[in-house]
Amino acid sequence: MNLLRAFLFILCLCFPLSAFGAEFSVPPRVSQGHAFPVSVQDDKPFSALFYWRGEELKAKAVKHPKKALWKAEILLAVPLDAQKEQVLSITIPREKHEFIITPLAVNWPKSILKVAPRYVAPPAEAMAQIERDRLLSRKALASRTEKRWSLPLKRPVPGGITSVFGGRRVFNGQPRAPHKGTDMRCAEGTAVKAVCTGTVLLAENTYFGGKMVYLDHGQGVISTYAHLSSFDVRPGDSVRKGQVIGRSGATGRVTGPHLHFGFLVQGVAVDAMPLLHSPPVLTGGPSRSIFQEQPKASKPRSAR
Ligand SMILES: [Zn+2]
């Protein structure tokens, strides 16, 4: 492995001298549960193939509006439990380049939450809906369309964070999966905005998420908005960054009204908060601190 690392390191050093002249932007270290943009730039049109965590994604370079420069860009993810370094391979015409990306550990917090018992041990009659929701979500997350995402993301609601991404959670004394989104404070009926331009994949009433919207931003980048009280969009609608897609509420597994905002990159849940910064924050976390407003200790913790 050391030999491979040394070889790849030397390979990385060679990029600016490449005959093709392409410039690569790849971060060497990314924290667990973070998304990271990768780009290749050249002075002529091209397409790039990115191979990351068992999936191949293609991106066509887009011309700079003023300069004779073409840039192929993609958003990738490091899962919140990633331990080992991973190789990212990028193929451009006649050349293949490999980069090592090292995941940095994050000390995820633990949350103890209390919700209605039917959300910890769902009744038998809820199983069909839970299974239907799982299949709908799986199908939505498998979507791979042309890039429409752009950074930074827009805040979906003005409220501060009440529960960070990645927290290990205990519901009514039972350990459950880590928190795969960010809970944001908002009163019932607050306008919820699309964080990025995209297409509505789902606007569905689900068991745990209540009324949920899934937006497809291309290349497997998907944002989700849960516990809404109503929808302002329908599946198939095209939405602009900042467009109102629904109103916040308290539907599904909750302890009170809030927005559960999820962000998935090729099916991997990541902390979206670092993507609200420009440039995005790639290391550290979990990110509560980027919002001025801190949760009040007296408020009940919201959950999903
Ligand atoms: Zn949540």
Describe the overall structure.
It is a single chain. With 304 residues, this protein is mostly beta strands. The chain has 2 domains: 2-104, Immunoglobulins (Immunoglobulin-like); 110-276, Glucose Permease (Domain IIA) (Distorted Sandwich). It contains 2 helices and 22 strands. It has helices at 2-14, 127-141; strands at 23-25, 29-31, 34-42, 47-52, 55-60, 62-63, 70-78, 86-92, 95-104, 110-113, 161-163, 168-171, 174-176, 182-185, 191-193, 198-206, 210-216, 221-231, 238-239, 244-248, 258-265, 268-270. 40% of the residues are buried. Residues 163, 179, 181, 183, 260, 304 line the site of zinc ion.
The strand count comes to: 22
Number of helices: 2
- Helix share of residues? under 10%
The span between the termini is 40 Å
Largest sheet: 10 strands, antiparallel
CATH architecture of the largest domain: Distorted Sandwich
Helix/strand/pairing category: mainly beta
The succession of helices and strands, N to C, reads HEEEEEEEEEEHEEEEEEEEEEEE
Low-confidence stretches: 10-19, 289-302
SSE map:
Layout: H1 2-14, E1 23-25, E2 29-31, E3 34-42, E4 47-52, E5 55-60, E6 62-63, E7 70-78, E8 86-92, E9 95-104, E10 110-113, H2 127-141, E11 161-163, E12 168-171, E13 174-176, E14 182-185, E15 191-193, E16 198-206, E17 210-216, E18 221-231, E19 238-239, E20 244-248, E21 258-265, E22 268-270
Parallel strand pairs: 2-9, 10-12
Antiparallel strand pairs: 1-3, 3-7, 4-5, 4-8, 6-7, 8-9, 11-14, 12-13, 14-21, 15-20, 16-17, 16-19, 17-18, 18-20, 18-21, 21-22
Residues 163, 179, 181, 183, 260, 304 line the site of zinc ion.
